[in-house]
């Protein structure tokens, strides 16, 4: 008699459309697939199948994994790196199967006991969103869902830099902390920061950019975030550094900032939360807040091809668990909005490979601090972040899915003056990275 593992593997290979180089183990003790597979998938109970049956796409499998009904041992990258796996799951290929294959798959699942009402989603899933998309109140709620889960947890995988965005890994930079220092310094040089300037850091996170700019470039900084926990943490770091007279951190929506003009604005990993409909509002607001010849550095993930038709279908893992209402837009949409607001776009630098390196470093940190992380936020949330970080790393390693750009834009001055140097040479001078503590801070 064929065990559950063989039947399940057969169904999934038909759905995905390619052989799966994984070992499958089931609740009945049966196993199937290559014995030496780098990744081993364990269906702990029949409920895992019901989750997939009721959500036959990436969301169903994510729910099974996050809840613990399904487990992955070994190398999670080996599982997620199956050619086009995430894309194929996102296409909901089960519903696109020929009728004969669909009946056969449903019969297999029913025969294995995957019957009954749909299981409740894991408690950390965000399902109901109140208010108009990208209204101030809804944006505040969605940001809180992602960031207000405990600063200690973020320390576990971000490390001492506490920077939650793509690092910069030029030659000679080999640690996560050095890459994040190099990225912050590169942004400061692109903004041409000088002592006495005012910098607005939109989506300031845990205060790393504000601290770097004030400590190394002598500027005064206002940082704004919608996350209460981030702001409290950043204020503590500012106080510890003795810079409370130079750095102000606020819980504030960027739309409510009214104390311009600023000489420069940094927006690092924030505009993904703005949304296509609000992008003109965002760029116009930042334009108004800048002094003439002021510079904006917008550091954001971009889609290689338009994803706007797929915004918020409610079925994606990212929307339910990671970035509710997040929108990854093509670079062209951002540049169009900037220029329609009056900015002159002066430079765009793609850092796709750099983000892949950063994400793999975060995965390594999370693995090394797995038990401590579970104690902080519980196993479901740690599983969620591992799945998200690993899948994202692979997404940036492929050339046709995701990328990330630093776009430098200038508010023209008198007679169109921009104050730009004639070359980029000063941006890429040798970076003197100080001796930095490595690894997450774990007490």
TrEMBL record:
The gene is cfa. Keywords: Lipid metabolism, Methyltransferase, S-adenosyl-L-methionine, Transferase. Belongs to the CFA/CMAS family. GO terms for molecular function: cyclopropane-fatty-acyl-phospholipid synthase activity. InterPro entries: CFA/CMAS, CMAS, SAM-dependent_MTases_sf. It comes from Rhodococcus erythropolis (strain PR4 / NBRC 100887). This is Putative cyclopropane fatty acid synthase. Its EC number is 2.1.1.79. Residues 115-141 are annotated as: Disordered. The keyword DNA-binding does not apply.
């Amino acid at each position: 008699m064929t065990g559950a593992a063989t039947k399940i593997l057969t169904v999934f290979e038909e759905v995905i459309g390619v052989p799966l180089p994984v070992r499958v183990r089931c609740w009945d003790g049966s196993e199937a697939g290559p014995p030496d597979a780098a990744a081993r998938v364990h269906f702990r109970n029949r409920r895992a199948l019901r989750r997939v049956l009721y959500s036959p796409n990436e969301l169903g499998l994510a729910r099974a994994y996050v809840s613990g009904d399904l487990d992955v041992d070994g190398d999670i990258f080996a599982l997620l790196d199956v050619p086009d796996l995430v894309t194929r799951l996102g296409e909901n290929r089960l519903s696109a199967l020929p009728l004969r294959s669909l009946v056969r798959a449903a019969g297999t699942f029913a025969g294995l006991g995957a019957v009954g009402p749909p299981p409740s989603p894991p408690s950390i899933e965000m399902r109901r969103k109140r208010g108009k998309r990208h209204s101030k109140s809804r944006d505040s709620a969605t940001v809180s869902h992602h960031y207000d889960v405990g600063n200690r947890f973020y320390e576990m995988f971000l490390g001492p830099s506490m920077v939650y965005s793509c690092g910069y890994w030029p030659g000679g930079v080999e640690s996560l902390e050095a890459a994040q220092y190099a990225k912050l310094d590169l942004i400061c040089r692109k903004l041409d920061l000088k002592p006495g300037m005012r910098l607005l850091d939109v989506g300031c996170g845990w205060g790393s950019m504000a601290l770097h700019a004030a400590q190394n470039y002598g500027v005064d900084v206002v940082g704004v975030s919608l996350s209460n926990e981030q702001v409290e943490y950043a204020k503590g770091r500012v106080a510890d550094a003795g810079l409370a007279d130079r750095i102000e951190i606020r819980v504030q929506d960027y739309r409510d900032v009214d104390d311009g003009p600023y000489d420069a604005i940094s927006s690092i990993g924030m505009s993904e939360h703005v949304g296509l409909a609000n992008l003109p509002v965002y760029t116009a607001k930042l334009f108004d807040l800048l002094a003439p010849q002021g510079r904006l550095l917008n550091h954001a993930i971009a889609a290689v091809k338009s994803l706007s038709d797929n915004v918020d279908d409610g079925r994606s893992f990212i929307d339910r668990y990671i970035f509710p209402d997040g929108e990854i837009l093509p670079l062209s949409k951002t540049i169009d909005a900037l220029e329609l607001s009056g900015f002159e776009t002066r430079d765009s630098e793609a850092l796709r490979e750099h983000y892949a390196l950063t994400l793999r470093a975060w995965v390594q940190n999370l693995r090394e601090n797995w038990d401590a992380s579970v104690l902080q936020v519980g196993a479901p949330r740690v599983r969620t972040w591992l799945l998200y970080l690993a899948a994202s790393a692979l997404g940036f390693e492929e050339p046709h899915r995701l990328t990330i750009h630093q776009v430098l834009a200038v508010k023209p001055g008198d007679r169109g003056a921009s104050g730009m140097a004639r070359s980029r040479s000063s941006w890429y001078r040798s970076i003197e990275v100080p001796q930095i503590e490595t690894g997450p801070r774990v007490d």
